[in-house]
Amino acid sequence: MYDTRVNKKTLILAVLFLTPIFFVPESFASGTTQVNTFTGGASSLTITSDGNNTSSDLQLDLERNVTFQDASFVVEGQSAADTPGSIWINSSTGNTIWTYSGVGYGDLSHQNTFQTGATFDTVQLNNSSSMPSPILIPKNATLQSSYANITYTPQLDGQYIPVGAVQHMVLGESNADGMTDAFVFSTQNSTTGVNTGFAVIESNQTAMEYNLTGWTETCINSDQLRIADMNNDSHDDVVTFSAGSSMMCIHYYNTTTMTYDASFSVNITSNPIDVELADMNGDDYPDFITIHGFSGQGEVSLTLFNGSTNAVRQDDDIPVYRWNFGQGRTSLRSLRVGDFFDRNENVIIVSDAWNDATEITYDSVNRQLNSNIQKFRNLTAASVAGDFDGDGDIDFLTTKETESVIIVNNQSSWNQVGILDVLDATNATVADFNNDGAVSLLIPNPQFGDGNPSTIEGEIGFRSISSTGLGSPSNTPLTPYSVPRDIQFSDINHDGLVDQFVLAGEGLQGVFIGSWHNLSLDTDVDGDDDLWASGYSSTTIAHLGVLTITDADDVISDTISPFLQAYPGLSDGYGIEMVTNMMSLSSNSNGTANFTDLDIGYDIMFAVTTSAGTIGSFSNSLNQQMLAGAGTFTVTLPVETTRAGQFDVTSLSMNYTLGAPNLALPPTPVLSVQSLTEFDVTIEWQALSEFGSDLQEFQIFRMSSASPYDYSSPYEVVTGQNYYTDSVVDIGSTYGYVVRSVHSFGIVSNLSQSLEVTIPNPPAPSAVTNVQLLDLDIETASSPMKVTWDASVDAGVEEYRVYVATSSLDATGLANELTSEKDYSFNGITYQSVATVPSTTTEAELTQTSAYSDSTGNTLSELIQDGHEYWVAVAAVDVYGNASLPLPVAGPTTSYNNTYIDSQLSLTVLSGPDGFTGNVLESNSPLQISVYAHYFDDAQQDVGIQGAQLEMTITYGSESLVLNGQSDATGQWSAVDVTSLHDPTIPQSLLDFSASSGGTVDIEVSMTAIEVADMQPYASANASDSMGTAISIEFSGPASPVDMDANNAIDVNITLSAVDSVNPAHQAALEGTTILWEAFNDTSADALMSGSETLSTGKIRIASSFENMSRIEFTVDSGSRVLIGTTTYTLTLNAYIAPVETNETDETEPEWVPTTIQSVTIACESSTILTNQQASSDPIECVLENPNPFSVDVTVSVTESPSLFKNPGSMTVGANESTTISFVPKYDDPLWERQDDADVEKEFTIQLRTSSSDYDIEGQPLLQNGIVTWTADLFVEVNTTPVGEEKSSSNAALLGGIGAGVALLAIVGFVLYRRASADFENESFYEEDEPPIEEEPVEIPEGKPLDSFEDKTISDEPEVKERPGDSLISEVDDVEQDEIEDDVEEELPIEEEESDDGISVDEYGTEWYEDEVGTWWYREAGAEDWSEYNE
User: pTM for the full model?
Assistant: First the structure.
């Protein structure tokens, strides 16, 4: 440092000694004497001042009767010495020779002010960076030290609000001032004074502080608190309740009293485990979501609330099942409701006693809760929610005894990431608490208080958290207040930094409210922080204090010192060159930084030689004080300072010659502009004669925007003239000039006043001529209009600008100008150019008008429209932006625009189940295909095209569907909008194609061009899209564990069913699917057995031994097929338990009791029913098989509504046996009359109910749904009677009698043949029928001769009426006929009890009777009227 000072001093001394050589007038070539000491021969003096009185320490011994040619000395300041503050060195006559007192200079050798002159600077920060006032430092200073304090006062000061005993704290908004409030709940009367109650720590937006409101009494038994705006008035209301109670106590916020009203109660679903509030149906009123079933029978319930009527309505319930659905309903533990997937939808997530979670959504249209069958694991009531990966949705952290699990939300699935960290996450929260862009896990650790609130016990630990794991715990946990129990976050003042609400305190508990702030200083504005501090900031909490940055280690000086010499400086009139130093302050929140206690210490040397004002220079001042005579005299230079301190003066250098003329101060030059052109400026001042005969020269000083005045170095020197011409100028630039005269004996004049001039632009080039506006044929041209002109005759044109308007642009006689942006302005309107072309071009194509602005605002440009009039103006502009005004114009010209508008088609396809990513064609899902016809106008605004003719082709496989339509007033066309592919508007082929494996549906839409007279046409357009196919499936097996037999074998069916049970193509498409299986024991993590089966008739059969196995996991191998639904199933196996045996001691062993039950299976025949025949022999026969090793009770029901078939009823099926049932048509139902389908396959749904009356088995009865298919057809009569042949009545009677006999024989043979066709292996075939039970008389018609029946025509050959069931007589099947007959008898108990009146009943339930004349009559089952039988 010392070497630096010596070098600088040497440099200054050299300058001072060389200065006389260059500035000595030519007339003084010799005889010069130099003086280098102060009074008493001292080479230097230390000037001491008390800051109040003038110091006389600075004295010079001068020779009388001499003239000083030049004079100078050095003022030297040391940072180690006491600074004198500001300094003034004056002449004996009171004129200032030199001063260090500029605004912002600070004290000599100690910069302690800002450029403004203030000793402090306040900077407002808004979660951003801002610059404090600059700091001035002498350019040649040697920095030695620095010190500063920067305190930060956030907008929200850290504060603690005492409350008392608090059970709960919930954040909300009570007074609707935009700031978060904290609701506290307590059951302690010593705290509330009202027994159970709540209060609000409420914000004051004006004062930015919080206060505790009074306590509001609530229901005495309440122990829970929820917050929501129940009546949609923008104020949060309070709901309290007791865990397990259905009574909800609601307190509304009273906007008049600004307090909470007394409660009213509503009742929701009984016995809730937990209750949450959320608007589920979109009516802006929160609803009640509850969970039930702590010990099984898990259920989620939704109770809707209407805040306008305060009414509740139970809306829907949904059962929640275990992870393995076969294990039944689960036991629920926790409830969460929120927008977990960042899609503006409230979703319910519940977890059970096994930590398995289920998602539930609400369909407000159908008023139905729906669960996602894709569950996820490891969610508990203590799981911590937060966005760990920054993708906007909610993830979870679950802690366990030996590990933890991060559950990452990927919108469509939940990824489980196991980590080894073991921690207590009670009241943990995830937040970016310091606004650094990374979230942290914050965990309160209250520890135990010592009863002294002034000492801090407990802390809030934090560590980073991401989707892959946890970081290490911070070594510096947060300590906002003693014994912190809970922490919650909210951005109270919306500055981007979350604020903390910490429930804490010893003895008297309360809530701390504050933030973790960051404050930093970048001293050299290089983007790197040089000083920083982070923490809480509070003016009321002593252990926190105000956040402060302190520079106690010379950081500021060390940072800016290397760059000080390189920075540009600014010199004042005393030769002091100061450098402006900029700094930058940053914070992560809103607040005020107060920059104080600045002190930058430096060593400095200033040369005192020139002066501003009348003195001009030190030598001039000495000459003014010269005395006549001989010898020496002493001159005192009075020194004034603002502080008590000292500085040194050294390096005195005074050169003089003998003789002292009568010196007088010359006049100050007065400047004026003589001439000003684009090429140069000439300034002038008074005549030379006014400056006297001793005038030597004039010094010219110049200032520009790039460089300030430098009075130590003239810009130019002129002699013998009173003017100066400056030709080094730029057009449009502004320059300033200052002049002073220099005379003999070192006399100089005062500096003139600054004269500023701006170099003008050259004359504008001449205007263009012959402007013409032309309408173009759009069929051959690329634009609707064109403007042409003859070029300007001047060579200075750089470009031409074109302006287009829908009104005249002629500005003749009006004020007009070309603005600096080259816009044309006249008559209060400013037009922007629509085209700019180079000077070599004399035409421009036009497509739009000029955008313009006027007193009403801005107006955008518009496309040139057909049939409108337009005007045009052209400007010839030079390089300086000049143009001759007013501009030449042309117009009006009418445009006839025939260009095609560039049409656009946007094709939107929405298809597939909810929650499925992408579009797929799935039969039970909605399909919406819409087209938007539009174009973009000149402002790139989207405009719909009305009436566009659109054609859509949907291609699938070898088929295609063509749809035609047109867009509506908004440009939209909804081509397809169905809730499922079963909609009648969807072709059967497209429905069937949705079942195809790996199918692709291509959608193409085209728009034909629109050409209408007097309108601009629209071009044709096309768009396309595609999607694949998918099938929704149900993959299932036994609902409960299966018992293995003595051979450790099982015999089970695993089913893969299409959810679409209506369309058989979907189930058929699944045939042949490969089902993979793996078997595991209780201990192995790897499969010990594996295999695969091929799906047949919707199932696979597993009949094999699985010794020592405890479970089998089945997986559907979907291959290239898209299957939606569960594709895995786990079957639990129960080990075989030996049957009960009697031992030798006659002691009875326990009897074997089954623990599981399987549903019976059903297989039905392929049946065709002639619907117009409606014979009683049309039942559909099916076989029930019991796979259980014990008998079961089965009830078979038809669940189709309305049903065309009767319920088969209930029956018992023996162990591992089968039985036959029938589905009998209900021909008395009027629906059969409307059946007119021919050869159409139909189906109806059934339900099998399986149970055992012998054993009490968990999970029974088992319910299984199924489908029975049959074919509907029509009977066609064949008439064999010759045309025109007539039969007499006698022949008719004769033939009728013969026919009756033949009919009797045919019926008897038919019945015998039908019985013979039954399963002859059944022993009941050989048993005699029991005698019929006597039936009550049935009313039948009396016998009549055939000729007494009117309107009866008997043909030659009797008409053959085929019974609907006749086609099945000759078929051999596996159904036992006697069981069918038994079933029929069971269904007709009344007929069996009636007496025998000559009425017989065949196996099809048809009654037969022969009257007295031998005529046979029959009555179908269920019919009321008898019909004559004709063969």
Answer: 0.52
